[in-house]
Amino acid sequence: MKGKVDVLVGALWGDEGKGKVVDTMGADVDIFVRYQGGANAGHTVTVDGQKIVFNLLPSGMLYPGKLCVLGNGVVVDPEEFLKEVDELHRMRMDRARLAISSNAHVVMPYHKILDCAQEAFRGKGGMIGTTGRGIGPCYADKCARSGVRMEDLLDEVRLRDAVSAVLEEKNLVLTKLYGKNPLPFDEVYEPARDWGKALAPYVEDTVALLNDSFEKGKYILLEGAQGTLMDVDHGTYPYVTSSSTVMGGGFTGTGMSPACVDRVIAVTKGYTTRSSWGPMPTEEKGEVGEYLRDKGAEFGNVTGRPRRCGWLDIVALRYSMRLNGCSAAALMKLNVLSGMDEIKVCVAYDLDGVRTERFPGSAHILAKCRPIFESLRGWDEDISNCDTFESLPAEAQNYVNYIEDHAGAPVKLIGVGPDRNQTINRGL
Ligand code: IMP
What we know:
Elements: E1 4-10, H1 18-25, E2 31-34, E3 43-47, E4 50-54, E5 67-70, E6 75-76, H2 78-90, E7 97-101, E8 105-106, H3 109-126, H4 135-144, H5 150-153, H6 156-177, H7 185-199, E9 203-204, H8 206-215, E10 219-223, H9 249-252, E11 261-269, E12 272-274, H10 287-295, E13 308-310, E14 312-313, H11 314-324, E15 328-332, E16 342-351, E17 354-356, H12 363-366, E18 369-377, H13 394-407, E19 411-415, E20 423-425
Parallel strand pairs: 1-10, 1-11, 2-5, 2-10, 5-7, 6-8, 7-9, 11-15, 14-16, 15-19
Antiparallel strand pairs: 3-4, 12-13, 16-17, 16-18, 19-20
Helix pairs in contact: 3-4, 6-7
The structure holds inosinic acid.
C-alpha cells in the first residue's frame, strides 16, 4: 500500500508561519522531514500559550510517537542540533523520534567564521545580510566536493582525513584573505569527533527509511524552510539563501520521487514581509509598515532584525504558486489586518512605464518594478476567535476570496491568531 507525501513551502520571502501549519496538519502525519537549509530557519510553534522556536529541528517534534527527519539536503549544525534536543528534553517536550541523513553535510566551525568574514568582505554595498550560521560556505563546500558529511563524523579515521584535507585550504583563506587566526587541527577535529559520538544514534540512511515508509503506507510531510523567493535559483538572487527552497528541493533533499507527491501547499500571510536585503516592491516604510510590524510581531527569530513589511504582492504569490505547482494555500495572520479601513493588494508592476503581471526572475529587474495596487475594504472586528469562514466579517471573506481568485489556488487554512487552535481549517 502506497503512502502519501505532501510538500509545504513558504510562498514568498519566508517567515510565513509554516511551523503553525505543520502543527495544524500534524496529527495525521507520520513523518515530518526537513529537506533544505539549516539553523538559519526559525519555525515558531505556540502550544498552550508557550512559544517554542526551532531553528534546525522539524516542526513536528512536539508530536508524540512521530518520526522527524533531517534529510540529505539539510546542512546540520551539530551544536545547534544537540542544543535543541537538550532544550526539548529539559522542557519534557522530546516527544518524537529523530533521524539525520548520513549524507547530510555538517556545518563546521570554519563555515561560520567564513560566513561572517565573507559578509564583511562584501562591504556595505554588497552585503547579503546572512544569518552568520555558516549556511552559504557549507553548501559551497558540498558543491565543491570538499564537505564533511554526517557519515564522516561516525568514522574517526575518515573524519581525521577529511578535516586535515580541508583545513589547510581553509586556514590559508582565513589568514591570507580575511586576516583571521588559523584554526588548530585539534580545535576542529576533537569537537567533531565528539559530535559524531553524540549524533551516532540519530544517523541513518534516510533515503531508504523514507521510501520504505512510503511503500508501507505512511503519510510524509516535506517541510520547506525559508521561502520560494529565497531559492538559490528562482529567488531574488543574490539576496537568497544557498539552497533549493522550492518544492523541487524536497526531492533532491530527501531522495523521494516527485511521483509520490499528493499535494503542495504554499504558506503566505495576508501581507508581505521580508527579513533579508534585496528588492521588495510592496514594502511600506511609513505608518502602514510599522503597524504591520508591531501588530504582527515581525522580528526575525534568528537575527532579531525587524522585518520589512508591506501589502500582499499577488504578482509574487502567483509566481510562487506556479513554480511550486501548488494545490492549496494557507493564509496566515489574517487577524493582523483587523482595524484597517483599506487593504491594498499589488496586482501588477510598472516596469519602465509598462504594466506587467509577470514576476521577474532577476533582482535587478525587480528593483525597478513599482507596485500597481487595487484597494479592498478593510474590517474593524477582532477576528481572533473566529472558527469558521462564515463567522469572518464579510470584508475579510471577500479578501480571502480575492486572494484565491488571483493566486490560483484555494485557501484551505486561515490563521487568525498565534495559538494552535486559532485557525480556520477549510479541509486541509
Ligand atoms: P543565509 O541563509 O544565512 O545564508 O542568509 C541568506 C539570506 O536568507 C539572509 O538575508 C537571511 O536573512 C535570509 N534567511 C535565511 N533564513 C531565513 C528564514 O528562515 N526566514 C527569512 N529569511 C531567512
